[in-house]
Amino acid sequence: MNPLIKSLVLALVIHLVGSGISILAQAPAGVPATDRILNIKKIDAGKVKTPDYVVKPALPTQRTREWYKMEVIYDTDPEWVDEVSFTYYVVVKAKQPMPGRSAFTLFKGDVTYINVEKGRHKSDIYLHPSTLARFGDVERVAALVSVGGRLVGMEGLPSGSTSTRWWEQLPPQEGYLLNRTQTPFAMINFDDYEAIKPKN
Q: What's the pTM value of the predicted model, to 2 decimals?
C-alpha cells in the first residue's frame, strides 16, 4: 500500500476510535451509546395516601393509609416502540431487625408498557402500606429500563447511587412491588400512562 494512503487510513481509524471513546464517555454508565432511543428525565419517590373514591350512598372511610410510590418520567424518540420494560428495585431497612436476619430487604418489580408513541411518558410502581409497616423504611430506589432486551437507561435515588449497582448485593424479593393496575391508583390520571402488558 502507498505510504501516503496508509498514513491517511491510520489517521482516519485513530479519529474514529477517538470519537467513539468520546461518545461512550458521555453515555450513562452501563448503557450503550447507540441506545439513545429513550431518555429518563426524572425519577421521584415518596409516600402517597390511598385515593378516596366517592360512591353513593357515601360510605365512611375507616382509615387512610400511605403507599410508597416510585415514578419515572421519560422521553422516547422513535415514532413507536413496541415495548418498554422497567425493572424497579427498592431496598428497605427494618426498624427493629430480627436476630440472625439482615436489616435490609430488597424488593424487585417489573412492568412493561406496549405501543409507546414518541414523546413524554410516565411509569410508576408501588409498595403496599402493609409491606412498609412490616419491612421498614425505604433507603434506596432504582429503575432500569430496557427496550428489546437491551438496557437503555437507569436512574436511582439518592442521585448517583446507581453507579454502585447496590441492587446486586441482596437477593431480591418479588411480588411485593405492584404496578398501578394492582392498586387503587389504577384510574387516577389514566391517560398519563401507557398500556401495561399483561403477564402470562
A: 0.79
